[in-house]
Amino acid sequence: MISLLKAREKLLSPLVSSTIRRLSSSLSYSREDSRDSEVLIHPSAVVHPNAVIGKGVSVGPYCTIGSSVKLGNGCKLYPSSHVFGNTELGESCVLMTGAVVGDELPGYTFIGCNNIIGHHAVVGVKCQDLKYKHGDECFLCIGNNNEIREFCSIHRSSKPSDKTVIGDNNLIMGSCHIAHDCKIGDRNIFANNTLLAGHVVVEVRFSLCLYSKPGFSSVVLFGLCCECRTIHTQQEPRWSTSSVILALLLSLAVVLWSHKMFQST
To answer: Whose CA, among 83, 100, 132, 174, lies 20 to 30 Å from 115?
Structure first.
C-alpha cells in the first residue's frame, strides 16, 4: 500500500509542479497588467473630475487637465504640461515639460496616437487671424506618429467650415509655426524656425529648411519630389505651380553658387 502511494506521488508531482508554474506565471502576468494599467497622478497636478483618463496614464507635477479632456491609454504628461478645452489625445502620446495643448474655445483639438509634443510647444490654441470671430468653432486634427519639437506653435482653424490638419509621421523641428487652416500631409520634415502662414497646403514627403553658410545670406530650400501650394484667397498672393518650381530652381542655384564661393575662399 505504501509503495502504491509513493508511486502515485511520483506520477502526480510533475503535474502539480507544472500547474503551480502556470498559476504563478498567470499571477505575475496579471500583476504586470495591473501595474501597466495603473494611473499615476502627482499630488500637485490639477485634474478635473470630469476628465476621461485612460489606463496607464502618467501625470507629472503641476500639470493641468481640463474638464472636457480625454487622454488615451499610456499617455505621459511631464511636469508643468497642460491640456485644456475639448481636447482628445490618442494612446501613448507624450507631452514634454511646459507643453500646452488645447484651449477653452468652441470646437475641438484631436491628436492621434504616438505623438510627441515638445518642451513649451503650444498646440491647438486660438488662431491669429483677424477674420476670426469670437465664439466661432475652430478645429485642429493631428494624425499619428508625429514629433512636434520644442517651442512650436500650431493653431486651430479660423472658421467653423475649415480645419487645421496635420497627417502622420511628420517631424516638425523646434520653433516652427503652423498657422490657421493649414493642411499638412504625411512624412514631411520642417526644419527649425520654419513658418507657415494661414491656408498653406503641403502634400507628402516635403522638406523645408533654412540653409545658411558663414558669410552668405540664408536661403529657403524646397525639397525635391514634393509639391507645395497655397489656397487662393483674396488676401493672399496667387502662387502657381510654375512659380514654385521657379523658386525651387533659383534656390538650388543660389546654394550651388554659395558652395562654390565658399570653397574658393
So the answer is: 132
CA 79 – CA 66 distance, rounded (Å): 16
Give one word for 3, left, alpha or beta, with left for phi > 0 and alpha for psi -120 to 50: alpha
**How many Å apart are CA 187 and CA 166, to the nearest integer?**
10
Alpha-carbon torsion (95, 100, 104, 110), positive or negative? negative
Tell me the CA distances in angstroms from 253 to 112, 204, 214, 234, one per residue in order.
39, 24, 18, 32
CA 138 to chain centre: 19
**Would you place residue 18 in the very low, low, confident or very high pLDDT band (cuts 50, 70, 90)?**
very low
> 30 is written with which cell numbers?
496579471
Q: Specify the pLDDT at position 161.
A: 93
Residue positions annotated with a catalytic role? 180-181, 198
Q: Flag whether pLDDT at 175 surpasses 60.
A: yes
Put simply, whether the predicted model's pTM sits higher than 0.85 gets the answer: no
- Which domains, ranges and CATH numbers included, belong to the chain? 40-204 (2.160.10.10), 210-228+244-259 (no CATH)
Tell the burial category of 171 from Cβ atoms under 10 Å away from its Cβ (0-12, 13-18, 19+). Answer: middle
d(CA 178, CA 131): 17
Distance CA(75)–CA(51), nearest Å, equals 14
Cβ atoms 75, 89 nearer than 8 A: yes
Compute the average pLDDT of residues 198-224.
57
